[in-house]
Design brief:
2 domains; Serine Threonine Protein Phosphatase 5, Tetratricopeptide repeat
């Protein structure tokens, strides 16, 4: 009859546990190619922190002319983005476009830098700093790589950003409307119409300007009618435009600025 050997069992359990929690060590790979392949394997397994370790080391160690270097920056950006490190991801993508402008990944990386910055601007009412950075990247894609397969996508992203920029100014204008600071409100509402004329927020801003101009405390009926004329021309079938811009009665008071 065999006796139970608890010591041996504990040793085996410890060895198995140690193997499971073994850390990824870049020194275990004898060459840059081996480390690159290991980084790709870790990325494919969803071990993004390990992939970051591998690709980051490659960006330090590879010589400038090594064809693996732009790919190391690219996959470093992808791993950081997957790991929720979007600012660092954007910086990694930007390095591909800046340091290797003739590489086939340059336009891809510039577009992904824009995507990474865009993802960091979470609501229109928040600080638009990252939205501005995203905008600059998408514009660069169009300017530097007009024939890129990403050019159309960059245009769509720019249009989305315009809606958000317009929304931010519109909400600021409405904040001043609620506080009855009408002159300040009009500054922001006009800015939406001037800077983002192709957005839906431009239409909404014009409607709000009509309402502000018609307030008894303002009573700028001619200004209101001028905007209504533009609204009727641009949105002839819009129900809100029709309701807001009904022709004033013949005896309605009128005052200009």
């Amino acid at each position: 009859m065999h006796r139970f050997r608890p010591t041996l069992v504990l040793v085996l359990l410890f060895a198995a546990t140690t193997a499971c929690f073994r850390t990824f060590n870049v020194r275990n790979f004898p060459s840059s190619v081996a480390l690159y392949r290991a980084g790709m394997a870790e990325y494919e397994r969803g071990k993004y922190s390990n992939a970051i370790t591998a690709f980051e080391r490659l960006t330090f160690d590879l010589p400038t002319r090594d064809t693996l270097l732009p790919r190391a920056h690219w996959w470093l950006g992808q791993a950081r983005r997957r790991n929720d490190e979007r600012l660092l991801a954007a910086q990694s993508f930007s390095r591909v476009a800046e340091q290797f402008p003739n590489d086939t990944l340059a336009d891809d990386a510039m577009y992904m830098a824009g995507i990474s910055y865009r993802e960091m601007w979470r609501r229109p009412t928040l600080d638009p700093q990252y939205g501005i950075l995203a905008q600059s990247q998408f514009r660069l894609v169009q300017g530097v790589f007009p024939d890129s397969p990403f050019a159309d996508s960059a245009q769509r992203k720019l249009e989305e950003l315009d809606e958000w920029f317009a929304t931010k100014d519109f909400e600021t204008g409405m904040h001043y409307v609620r506080r009855k600071a009408y002159d300040s409100a009009l500054i922001y509402l006009r800015a939406v119409v001037t800077e983002y004329p192709n957005t839906d927020m431009a239409r909404r801003s014009m409607l709000e300007m009509v309402r502000v101009f018609r307030l008894p405390v303002m009573n700028y009926q001619e200004d209101a009618e001028e905007i209504c004329a533009a609204l009727r021309g641009g949105f002839p079938a819009d129900p809100e435009v029709q309701a807001t811009c009904r022709q004033p009665s013949a005896g309605a008071p009128s005052a200009g600025r």
